[in-house]
Amino acid sequence: MLDDKVAIVTGSARGIGRATAELLAGHGAKVLINDLDADLAAQTAAEIDGETLPFAADLTDPGAPDALVSRVIEQWGRVDILINNAGYTLDGVIHKMSDEAFQRMLDIHLVVPFRMCRAVAPHFREPAKREREQGVEVFRKIVNISSVTGTFGNSGQANYASGKAGVIGLTKTLAKEWGQFKVNVNAVFFGYIDTRLTQTNTTENTMEIGGETIQLGMPDQVRQIATSLIPLGRPGTPEEAAGGVFLLCTPWANYITGQALGVTGGQLGGMIS
After folding, report:
1. Whole-angstrom Cα distance, residue 46 to residue 38?
2. Catalytic residue positions?
3. Is the model more confident about 201 or about 162?
4. What is the pTM of this model?
């Protein structure tokens, strides 16, 4: 289905990102695997059945998105699909939240997708101009990852919610700007998916960023409440989450753009459009 397509999936060495990369590669795409951890990125790239390319970087570094896209072009000469998935949580109630904690969530969940979209711009727009002159339509895809937290909020996550809400606005705007170039720009907002961000917040469930240990996960009580709000009765798996992303990368989604698709098991709340 995706033979000869080239895909970038940020934050793809584990969890939903890895499941998405595996699904794209399984349908023929060449896939760039990105993570902060160079060893993990290389290991994941080696384990995925298909043509892959590891690229380790902290994408919040201003030059990293451009460097990542340049590496893809150097290796494969094109890019057709961009999945902006990289992210993490840094929770806290708003009256105790530092400027740094707020800004860090905006940086990874909103600024990085903006920079990644900007970095692929010439490789999406210029081929499309030539294709338009030839009278052919070739669709390229951008899928930005959001969250139910960005659509109806969540206590203790003002920073994360703001970033995830912002990326939906970015999605809808870019869909309008790049529709003329046959670029489908959509978002997927996830509900409760079973990843390290939603598993129990034990002392082992952490990640390292710049030498700092970040606590991940949720208290068990919150996990139980979250499950009770899902009509399908359980959290989703990374593979099920990846399915929603993959759908928007297929030819069957060529006339879908500027949309936010909920992959939530039926969990709803707030105002969603």
Report:
1. 12
2. 160
3. 162
4. 0.89
